[in-house]
Design brief:
The chain is built from three helices and 16 strands. By secondary structure, the protein is mainly beta.
Length: about 350
């Protein structure tokens, strides 16, 4: 006899990944080290970077603007340097609230004083760095970037070493896909039906199931629902960032609520099934789906649920519930399904 819990709201906040916001802005400061052929001393650099995360591509678009005051050697004056660039940023999996990244792109460099054969022109750049979360809306950012510009048959090389603060804006799925944690002594978790009953020709009542489900701004009386024999599937939608299995550390209260239910109902076991959208190869998506379900399983085990009560499986892209042609449909397909059984 198998039952399915509608824990989509309960675990919603646990399944957000690294790029949870549609865009981010970084205020940066550092030093640029030019090569000897430019006859410039090392100089301070200030700037801003704006990264757009709403595109479901491996490389996130980034616009940057940097300004410097450089001093020429041999008392040949100063020059103001302005650089603008368009980059693609690839973010690796977040670990311990730290997100490594690399970037590649191109831009334009403008100099007010073009002594020693320096001139304005296009440059290519590549860099590496990391973002370390301070809060859910702010991170400390470090990066090193190499810039190369063709200059009268030679190549100018500049190495920029920078640090700054990144601010996250416009949270994805705002108002829909994340339930606020309780902020006062009144619990946000209420008793809700564990199963939606379906009619069958031969419905045999065997047990009554009551489950704790987190809901928003609603308090109801306990409701007991009679569970039929036929299993019901409940989805967790819109909570995995593309190509990520990260569980947000701020969702501890939602995980604990599920742990409380499992502790109070020790005869139940759960199967946690991960799903993906169709972007990428089937082989890669199968691996990602398994990682997602195991992430949820590991989080429950870490809070005391016995491993033998939890089974994690992945179905990859094989069971979509909406069309993968649209962004909204792909978000729905990146989900977790949880089945309870005895």
């Amino acid at each position: 006899m198998k039952y399915t819990l509608a824990f989509s709201v309960l675990l919603a906040a646990t399944l957000l990944g690294a790029s949870e916001n549609n865009y981010e802005i970084s205020a940066m400061v550092g030093y640029t080290l030019p090569n000897d052929g430019q006859y410039l001393d090392d100089y301070a650099t200030y700037g801003v970077e704006m990264q757009f995360n709403s595109f479901e591509f491996a490389l996130k678009p980034e616009l940057s603007l940097f300004y410097s005051d450089g001093d020429y050697k041999y008392d040949n004056g100063t020059t103001k340097i302005v650089r603008t660039a368009l980059n693609g940023v690839y973010e690796f999996k977040k670990e311990f609230n730290t997100t490594p990244f690399f970037k590649i792109g191109a831009g334009y460099e403008s100099m007010s004083n073009t002594a020693f054969g320096n001139h304005n022109g296009l440059f290519a750049n590549a860099g590496v760095g990391m973002k370390m979360d301070i809060t859910s809306q702010m991170a400390f950012k470090l990066e090193a970037m190499k810039m190369v510009k063709s200059n009268d048959g030679s190549h100018d090389n500049n190495l920029a070493l920078m640090g700054g603060l990144t601010f996250y804006f416009d949270k994805k799925g705002k108002g829909n896909d994340r339930v606020a944690a309780p902020t006062d002594s009144k619990p946000a978790a209420v008793i809700a039906p564990a199963v939606v009953a379906e009619k069958t020709e031969k419905s045999v009542v065997t047990e009554t199931v009551v489950a704790v489900v987190v809901v928003e701004q609603t308090v109801k009386e306990p409701v007991a629902v009679v569970a039929p024999q036929c299993p019901i599937t409940a989805d967790i939608n819109n909570h995995f960032v593309f190509n990520s299995d990260h569980i947000d550390s701020t969702a501890a209260s939602e995980i604990r609520a599920f742990v409380v239910f499992m502790n109070e109902n020790p005869t139940y076991k759960a199967t946690i099934t991960g799903h993906t959208d169709s972007i990428g190869t089937p082989e890669v998506n199968q691996i990602i789906s398994e990682k997602r379900s195991n992430k949820v399983r590991d989080a429950l085990i870490s809070q005391g649920i016995a491993p033998e009560r939890l089974n994690a499986v992945g179905k990859g892209e094989s069971m979509p519930i909406m069309s993968n042609m649209l962004k909204a449909g792909r978000a729905e397909n990146r989900r977790i399904e949880i089945d309870l059984y005895k």
